[in-house]
Amino acid sequence: MLSALEKLVRLESPTDDLDACREVIEYASAIAQEVLGKPAQIREVNGRPVFWWGAANPDVVVLAHLDTVWPKGSFQPVWSVKDNTATGPGIFDMKAGFIQALYAMADIDGSVALVATSDEETGSATSKDFIKEISAKAKAVLVLEATLNGKVKTGRKGTAMYQIRIHGKASHAGLEPEKGVNATVEMGHAILAISALENKELGTTVVPTMLRAGNTTNTVPDLAVLDIDVRSFSMNELNRVDTAVRNLKAVNPATRYEITGGFNRPPLETTSTMALYERAEKVAKALGMPPLGHASVGGASDGNFAAAAGAQVLDGLGAVGDGAHAAHEWVDITTLESRSAFLHALIKDILK
What we know:
Order of helices and strands: HHEEEEEHEHEEEHEEHEHEHEEEH
Shape: elongated
Mean pLDDT: 97
Largest sheet: 6 strands, mixed
Number of strands: 16
Structural class: alpha/beta
Low-confidence stretches: none
């Protein structure tokens, strides 16, 4: 397992490098040939490669992705093993989870497929409808995103992304600022209004992120652009924020607001996950494992789309480690085999 994982990690696969994503999925298919006796299908979904191994219309979908957030060469060293930990770009999120799933498929007889996409890290724009389609027909969708300190994930926030462009009027900042309409000043008002939309009690976050404004240091800015990241465990909350963002009113009536964006992923709510979680705990106990535990987290995954399609979902079944998207990304290599064996037993239990 470790050797296969090393080769997969060394094939760096940032989402926006389509050739790299094709290469990593082709190699994953070669690993399937070695481990499972036959290669995967490599499907084309809206111009991007998807790994598919198993039944054509599966009752159980084991869902992964093989793209990463790391541009080539940005994570150094690209592979390292020390004591019981291995590091590398995308090892925790989520190439180790994919390897665990691949080995878990061995000797399973039944309607199950391992599916790995290549655009999850940028919002699954090309694959989300495909994921919904296969999930709607499945009894269960098992998502191999990383664990939370060993815990599986039974809740995830839904997400929305917006961009606000405020148009003003340029003028000379020294000679005649009064003839301009300052888009930066207006954006300051907008930022305060947007930040006030959060709801800490319900865990709803509304975060102004990237801000760009102005052209030169001596010109009243005629344009300001803001990106906003919205997350919540509740669809009602996402709808509330959506309405408020789209109805922002200009403080300076001489400015003009242009608002784009919207929902990306719906929430993964516990109504879609707890039945599978309880089954997973029984399987873990039968294997002599300690209780798994579960958690709700702020990050979204393709499990959100699966749940929106009506599937029962269990997420966070992948690697034990830490550092998703961070320079210290690592996995505990002593857990690869046991977590794979647990997934194998869980799939068999669901197929009974």
